[in-house]
Amino acid sequence: MDVKMNGNLPKAELHLHIEGTLEPELMFALAERNGIKLPYKDTEAIRAAYQFTNLQSFLDIYYAGAGVLQTSRDFYDLTWAYLERCKADNVVHTEIFFDPQTHTERGIDFETVLEGIDGALSDAKEKLGITSHIIMSFLRHLSEESAMETLEMALPYKDRMIGVGLDSSEAGFPPEMFERVFAKARKAGFIPMAHAGEEGPPEYIHQALELLKVVRIDHGVRAIEDPKLMERLIAERMPLTVCPLSNVKLKVFETLADHNILDMLDQGACVTVNSDDPAYFGGYMNANFEGLVNELGMTETQARRLAANSFEASFLPEAEKKAWM
Ligand code: ES4
Ligand code: ZN
Q1: Cα–Cα distance measured from residue 259 to residue 193, given in angstroms and rounded to the nearest whole number
Q2: What ranges do the domains of the chain cover?
Q3: Which residues constitute the catalytic centre (predicted)?
Q4: How far is the CA of 244 from the centre of ligand 1 (A)?
Q5: Structural class in CATH, domain 3-324
Q6: Catalytic annotation, pick one of 19, 23, 95, 198
């Protein structure tokens, strides 16, 4: 198929960590602006360090990189740079995660972070015509208590965020650890979602559905190991926000040619394409689509269905979803 056609398809991005859009050039610029010394000689050395063996090997580098983000202006610049990539890839709507604890743990105020991200998103609506939502995500390698404190901290800003997520190291940190936090978040009006079935077993997807009552699963690719679970996900049109390039970089699949996204799509699952942490994983939305065309033989029909799924699975009002599908 014509790859350029993909570039023209309107799409929604539903699984994107704003801290994961920090390109090495901006990392250096912010380090300089904030008087921080980076442990890298230049941007080439940073890129050379992005050789990951699993999720944890990535997270260590990703949390260290986020240390250059200090002021609202830093978060604004980071978010604006991502939104320009959205414009280039015809991502017309984006629902972005941020990890408050990554910043509050090192003394940056919740409000400083939210102000910067939200400011760029507001300007993008006006100047780029891109709509958006913000989702705050709890770090599952930290305690329930820390997540609860973060939720409390977020309550005064509740109207500026649509949902809560759960991310970071998966294996050994099952969703059940955060049942009470999610119950409280749902009661406050946050829409619940969670990373599950990236490195963790299908059981974690079960727990996310049953205990956290999520309406979307982030990743979810290991659901394919449990046929009964697959059946349920398909019957309920439960969205799985899949990140193909991320999965290859973090060795969830050896190559894109081994990825199961099109199998799940053809089985009737509501899978979507997303870039996750594009500055670290080698590409934004269209790079993911192009990889699927070139390495997995994705057809035009499949690409259109994935784009339509991205709107179906979004938190846009029904009328706006329909207008894009
Ligand atoms: C993440 Cl790829 C991935 N998985 C889990 N947590 C994350 N946080 C940022 N990227
Ligand atoms: Zn993710």
Answers
A1: 23
A2: 3-324
A3: 198
A4: 13
A5: alpha beta
A6: 198
